[in-house]
Amino acid sequence: MVGENVRYSDADLAEFKVLILAKIEKAQADLELIKSAYMNDLNNGTDDTSPTFKAFEEGSETMSKEANSQLAIRQEKFIRDLKNALIRIQNKTYGICKVTGKLINKERLKLVPHATMSIEAKNQQR
């Protein structure tokens, strides 16, 4: 084939699929941890032992709930992006830059498997 590849080979796509499935599994486990920390409040039943610091604790508790909520939202988006990458693998459009139409560098995809743009296109956005 002369010129640039139009898409990654089926073998490459299968390799990326394994990588992405592993990342989804880990991301979902992480999300469960974040959610359980959020639900449990990490309360050890010491509410009545130190009333002096109660106001400080409530403030930090609120902050950590907000931080956990933000983490959970980011994690859910990450999982959604990874699942979208699986759809692109199925459609054999995975790894093709949505801006330039060229193949995204393999090393970039290994580091950021849900990438939809090449570094070149990403830099043009700035």
Automatic annotation (TrEMBL):
Entry annotated with the keyword Endoplasmic reticulum: no
Keyword Membrane listed: no
Xref: InterPro entries: Znf_DskA_TraR
A molecular function (GO) term: zinc ion binding
Family matches, as Pfam families: zf-dskA_traR (PF01258)
Domain Zinc finger DksA/TraR C4-type: 93-122
ZnF (dksA C4-type) ranges: 97-121
Record key words, sorted: Metal-binding, Zinc, Zinc-finger
Protein name, UniProt field: Transcriptional regulator, TraR/DksA family
